[in-house]
Amino acid sequence: MPDGATEGKRLTRSAPDAEALAALEAAGAPEPEPVTPRPARPRKGRGATANPPPRFEPTWRDPFDDGWDADDPAERVPTTLSRDTARSVISWNTSPDLGFDRSVNPYRGCEHGCIYCYARPTHAYLGLSPGLDFETRLQFKPDVAALLERELRKAGYTARPLALGTNTDPYQPVERTLKLTRAVLEVLDRFNHPLTIVTKSAGVLRDLDILAAMAKRRLVRVCLSVTTLDPDLARRMEPRAASPERRLQAIAALAQAGVPAGVMAAPMIPGLNDAEMEKILEAAARAGARQAGYVLLRLPGEVAQLFEAWLTAHFPDRAAHVLSLVRQTRAGQMNDPRFGHRMEGSGPIADLLAARFARAVRQFGLGETRSELDCTGFAPPPAPARGPAARQLSLF
């Protein structure tokens, strides 16, 4: 897809055809000379340094710098919004690695721009790039609350905890104005439906009134993802997410309001932020967190390419070392998608990280057993009357 932040002209060519290349080789003709990509540069306020084409596209565009835009400040990339015309909003899964079987995502794409985000490859299904497009070309579901209510009213629906924002953050910046996540919470509150929330945003405190009321009925848990306590590293990895300090403040405010709060030290990146694990858990415990989790860095699909480019641009002195450590936790590859391995990895480095986490959880009192959310109170409220019945006055 077009990269609005790329300098210079753009050349479009078809993707290489294996049969055509084989024919050229058999005829003794040299292979087409590959185009050397322009060195990746960080964009202000964005995580990805590139915008690779969606993997399903038969063509892609190569940047060509003709020198005329050398002084043009092309680092700023605007955010654009478009409507998502989804006809259902509950996503179901049977993954043994996840603690939930259903989720709702009001948005596709995420302006937080976390470079390591495992959800980036899903943008390719929209014909968009998992790179800059993922964090700048967002889709929102204006009818998410109405669609959710319709699905919850279906005959035979059985309530189980619904995870909010598993693919993209439900409290990313655009939520401040669209308020789709709040609309979802209002539906779940009326239906007495349990939910869990994971976010990197202190914006969750805006909905503290609903969350506190639901917490009294054992209907909600909130987890703040804290990747680092270093504000400079956080700004590079997660350019538009809340600062680490604000996330810890959010944990404290939630706990004070009686909302069960936890912390996710995720992802842990060997050689980059893994040394902070104990400090993150200690700080979260002091703020009021009583539960904790962690996830080892995952690099599915295009994320591996994007992460490597980002690492080279921001930390050229240790990029090779970090990538080597990542491969040591993923059986020599950049990613290991196998169930039972993808969250925690394997090998000595991954085993040590798991042991450190277990020890820190005991040391800082983060091993509180998760109380089961109450699914027994689920009850769809009476549906609003429509048509002539809505205008008929009651006699009693």
Description:
The protein is an alpha/beta fold and 396 residues long. It has a single domain (80-363), classed as pyruvate-formate lyase- activating enzyme, CATH 3.80.30.30. The chain is 31% helix and 14% strand. The strands form three sheets. The chain has a seven-stranded mixed beta sheet. It has a three-stranded mixed beta sheet with strand order 3-7-6. Helix 3 runs parallel beside helix 5 (180-191) and helix 8 (244-256) runs parallel beside helix 9. 38% of the residues are buried. Mean pLDDT is 86; it is low at 1-25, 29-39 and 69-73.
What attributes does this structure have?
14% strand; disordered N terminus; seven-stranded mixed β-sheet; 12 strands; alpha/beta; 396 residues; 13 helices; pyruvate-formate lyase- activating enzyme; three-stranded mixed β-sheet; single chain
